[in-house]
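A quick aside before the break. I want you to see a complete sequence-to-structure record at least once, exactly as it would be stored in a machine-readable document. Don't worry about memorizing anything.
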Amino acid sequence: MLESEQDIKREAAQRLKAEWKELLANRRRDIAVLGNGARLRPIAIAPDEAQFLGTLEANVATICRFYGVPPEMMGGKTAGHEAYTSPEMRGTDLLTWTLRPWLYRVERAVSGLLPRTQRARFNPCGMVRATLLDRYTAHKLGIEAGWLLPSEVRELEDRPPIAGIDDRPEGVVA
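That is the input. The structure line, written in tokens, reads:
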């Protein structure tokens, strides 16, 4: 950016502007002559400001490491091999390494308040869900393989139970 403290008439300013644009447009390696009091100020971030931005990024990364949260979930940068993982996998990592230990503690605390025959349990799979098509395909495979009942699928999907659904062929509702 060109700056000047001198009083320049409009015509002279337009001429200088045109010459400067021409110099930049032609990418000529030439010496630019500036008038008395004029100076060139590069349009860039000052080094101390750039360092401040780097410090902010480092702070985000440090806090994320402390709490076990992936940095990109807090506006930070994804680093290393994690840059090539899917959002679903990063969500699973968040659940496994960050939330699961806390969920376990809460389950134990709440279960201690319930009668002995009951216990509290979170459904962490509901927090990291694949796409609708992937979930339904997985449910279908589980039902067809015989290790998952249609009533269990309805429960996983937070649907109300249907009486006798497990007795019908492949869970077909009449």
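Two observations worth writing down. Strands lie at 2-4, 38-40. The first strand starts at residue 2 and ends at 4. We'll return to this after the break.
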